[in-house]
């Protein structure tokens, strides 16, 4: 079991509850930060922040961990709803936050002609009254309680009714047929073009096919064999740095770091890793790319990065 650090003292109770649940799921499934970074679209360093209360995880990150740990998604969504409201209420009250949930993680954009670009949508919402907020919180708490009861039943079945041949490998990958079916992808090859690797399930079997480091920032070419698609991911960047993937025919997608240090692009179809490469464009003007992807599963960036990587051209 992980020797967890104490959570920051200023966290709201609902945020603490969510983080505690995520820590429990991670420990129960035997998942390391490196495994989480490899099997979800979110990097190892992102998971370190989420699990230590430094940043509120996006809802999709919560669901991704839940799927790996066979947790009830409805309960996790309900917990996230409470934590999300508490996190933003806390910030609205003028308290210092450790960071904010990066909704743009789930909306990679395509680099194309100006006519195809869209301005970010602006959502305005009237602050709910106290009675409305109370009612919503009570409803969510009720859902959490009901989901917990269902989860307990599932846990009892898992403990006493699990097939004797089922086991979990050290890297957290279950070796039963049911666990293999858990990789549920909903796109393939050209059908994945422009889509989010996490929302399509392609992040479930992702691996690093090419890696390069420039000015302290790592850029990876991530590849899914199940989806035959690739995307770019950068780690230890700065707000404004851009992750960009280039596929066959020059098809390019990119996404920008908005508040944190990591981000990933949308996908391009890639019959093999060698048909794509990942690039990074830093705010300093430095631009660098990996070599086309190879067949070797490379080690992901360390946390924090301390050594130079010389894979790929400058």
Kindly provide the radius of gyration, computed on alpha-carbon positions and rounded to a whole number of angstroms.
20 Å
Average pLDDT value?
Answer: 76
Helix tally equals 7
Shape descriptor:
globular
End-to-end Cα distance, whole Å, is 41 Å
Largest sheet strand order = 1-6-5-9-10
Succession of helices and strands: HHHHHEHHEEEEEEEEE
Low-confidence stretches: 95-107, 109-134, 152-181, 305-314
Number of domains: 2
Give the structural class: alpha+beta
Strand content: 5-15%
Task: Summarize the amount of helix as a percent range.
Answer: 25-40%
Count of β-strands: 10
Major beta-sheet overview: 5 strands, antiparallel
Mind explaining what this structure looks like?
- This protein is of the alpha+beta class and 314 residues long.
- It folds into 2 domains: 13-116 and 130-157, no CATH class; 189-289.
- 32% of the residues lie in helices and 15% in strands.
- The chain is built from 7 helices and 10 strands.
- The protein has helices spanning 13-29, 33-39, 44-51, 59-68, 73-92, 130-161, 177-181, and strands spanning 109-110, 207-214, 217-224, 229-235, 242-246, 252-256, 263-264, 268-269, 277-281, 287-289.
- The strands form 2 sheets. A 5-stranded antiparallel beta sheet has the order 1-6-5-9-10, with no helix packed on it.
- The radius of gyration is 20 Å and the shape is globular.
């Amino acid at each position: 079991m992980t020797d967890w650090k104490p959570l920051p003292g200023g966290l709201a109770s609902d945020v603490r509850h969510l983080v505690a649940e995520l820590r429990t799921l991670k420990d129960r499934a035997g998942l390391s930060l490196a495994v989480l970074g490899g099997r979800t679209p979110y990097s190892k360093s992102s998971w370190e922040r989420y699990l230590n209360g430094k940043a509120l995880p996006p809802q999709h990150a919560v669901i991704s961990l839940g799927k790996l740990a066979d947790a009830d998604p409805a309960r996790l969504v309900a917990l996230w709803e409470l934590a999300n409201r508490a996190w933003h209420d806390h910030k609205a009250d003028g308290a210092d936050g450790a960071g904010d949930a990066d909704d743009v993680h789930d909306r990679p954009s395509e680099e194309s002609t100006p006519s195809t670009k869209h301005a970010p949508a602006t959502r305005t919402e009237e602050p709910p009254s106290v009675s409305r907020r109370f009612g919503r919180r009570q409803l969510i708490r009720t859902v959490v309680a009901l989901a917990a009861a269902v989860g307990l039943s599932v846990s009892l079945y898992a403990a006493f009714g699990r097939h004797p041949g089922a086991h979990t490998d050290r890297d957290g990958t279950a070796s039963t047929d049911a666990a293999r079916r858990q990789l549920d992808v909903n796109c393939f090859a050209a059908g994945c073009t422009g889509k989010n690797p996490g929302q399509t399930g392609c992040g479930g079997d992702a691996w690093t096919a090419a890696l390069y480091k420039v000015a302290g920032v790592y850029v990876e070419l991530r590849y899914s064999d199940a989806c035959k698609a690739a995307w770019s991911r950068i780690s230890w960047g700065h707000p404004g740095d851009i992750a960009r993937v280039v596929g066959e025919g020059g098809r390019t997608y990119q996404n920008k770091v908005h508040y944190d240090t990591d981000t990933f692009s949308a996908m391009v179809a890639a019959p093999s890793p060698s048909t794509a490469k990942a690039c990074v464009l830093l705010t300093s003007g430095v631009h660098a790319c990996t070599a086309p992807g190879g067949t070797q599963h490379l080690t992901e960036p360390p946390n924090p990065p301390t050594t130079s990587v010389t894979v790929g051209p400058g």
